[in-house]
Each structure stands twice: as structure tokens, then as C-alpha cells.
């Protein structure tokens, strides 16, 4: 009868990352993936693989893919919640309701954090993040509603995105006057009709 081997079991070197480290790994991988591939072409599984974590960890730390995207661009509030009423509004009111929702978010107590995230994105390599945010989060559910004639939904959304991005930069980042000081009620009638025309008007294409 041989003696049992009582030598200690080898312990793997290193240590498991803590919660904060895991979250940081996921965010770093998500930013790279969203920047390179956009929102639609990025999957939770691919982010998990890049971060070397189980996909369940992403759902544990962030919830949905949309919530992970919001965290990746450092927004202080989930835009999906803000835009919920917009998506249920009549098509003929989409331009005004969309503008009021987005401007209302920028005019809220979250403005400093939103402005910081926006500035960080446009000053670095985050232009793809801004594009994905506008087209794949803000306007995603609107595109099929305005796809008349068929095939024009995306260009309509891109026209709206270009107008809104320009407005946000001019009003909040550059602070050009008198646009920056206009009240929301004064601003909406100036911009909303153009957004509505992009969404539902006839396009010369």
C-alpha cells in the first residue's frame, strides 16, 4: 500500500479580477467594438469574448446591449426610457416630439455629464459611436415607420441625425448666440418642421 500524495496542489498564479476590474474590461472592449463596428454589427457575445468574460457577466453588470452602449459612451441616463413616448407618438408629430425629447434631455440636470460624453466622443475617435447612438438608438424604431416610399427610411433618419447633431454642437458645444439662449419653446418651431419634412415629406431622390 502506497502512501497518499500529500504534496500541496499547485495554485494558479494571478488572481481573478474583481467586479470593478471586470466592469472596466467589458467597457473597454465595448467601446472598441462599438467604435469599429457600430451598434448593429456588434454582439454581446463578441464583446464578452474580447473582454474574456462570460456573456452572462455583461447582462449581470449592464443589462441589455442598449444599456451597455449607454454606459460605453458615458451617458448618465438611458435614452431608451426618454424616447419611449416618442416612438408611440403619431407619425405626423414625430419631428416635434423627437426634438423636444432630445432637447429636454440636454436641458435637464444631466446636461454637464451628457456634454462631457459628447465632447469626449467628437474629440477622439468616437465619431462612429455618435453615429451609432443617433441611428441605432435614437432613430432605430422610427426608421421603419417613415420608410415611404420603401427604401427611404434610412436616408430620412440620416438627414434627421445630421440636423440634430449640428443643432446640438452649435447650441451646446459651441454655444453660438443667439441660438444658445433661445428657449425650447422658441427653438422647436424653428427646427421641428424641417425634421418632420425629412421624416415624412417628399424627397427629390
UniProtKB/TrEMBL annotation:
Pfam families: TetR_C_16, TetR_N. Residues 1-22 are annotated as: Disordered. Residues 20-80 form the HTH tetR-type domain. Residues 43-62 bind DNA. Keywords: DNA-binding. One of its GO terms (molecular function) is DNA-binding transcription factor activity. This is TetR family transcriptional regulator. It comes from Rhodococcus erythropolis. The lineage of its organism: Bacteria, Bacillati, Actinomycetota, Actinomycetes, Mycobacteriales.
Amino acid at each position: 500500500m502506497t502512501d497518499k500524495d500529500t504534496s500541496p496542489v499547485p495554485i494558479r498564479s494571478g488572481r481573478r479580477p474583481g467586479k470593478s476590474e471586470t466592469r472596466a474590461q467589458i467597457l473597454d472592449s465595448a467601446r472598441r467594438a462599438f467604435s469599429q463596428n457600430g451598434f448593429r454589427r456588434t454582439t454581446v457575445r463578441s464583446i464578452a469574448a474580447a473582454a474574456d468574460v462570460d456573456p452572462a457577466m455583461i447582462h449581470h453588470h449592464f443589462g441589455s446591449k442598449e444599456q451597455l452602449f449607454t454606459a460605453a459612451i458615458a451617458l448618465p441616463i438611458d435614452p431608451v426610457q426618454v424616447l419611449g413616448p416618442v416612438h408611440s407618438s403619431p407619425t405626423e408629430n414625430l419631428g416635434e416630439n423627437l426634438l423636444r425629447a432630445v432637447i429636454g434631455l440636454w436641458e435637464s440636470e444631466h446636461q454637464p455629464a451628457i456634454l462631457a460624453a459628447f465632447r469626449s466622443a467628437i474629440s477622439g475617435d468616437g465619431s462612429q459611436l455618435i453615429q451609432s447612438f443617433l441611428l441605432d438608438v435614437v432613430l432605430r424604431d422610427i426608421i421603419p415607420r417613415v420608410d415611404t416610399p420603401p427604401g427611404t427610411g434610412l436616408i430620412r433618419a440620416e438627414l434627421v441625425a445630421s440636423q440634430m447633431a449640428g443643432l446640438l454642437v452649435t447650441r451646446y458645444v459651441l454655444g453660438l448666440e443667439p441660438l444658445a439662449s433661445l428657449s425650447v419653446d422658441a427653438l422647436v418651431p424653428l427646427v421641428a418642421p424641417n425634421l418632420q419634412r425629412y421624416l415624412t415629406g417628399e424627397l427629390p431622390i
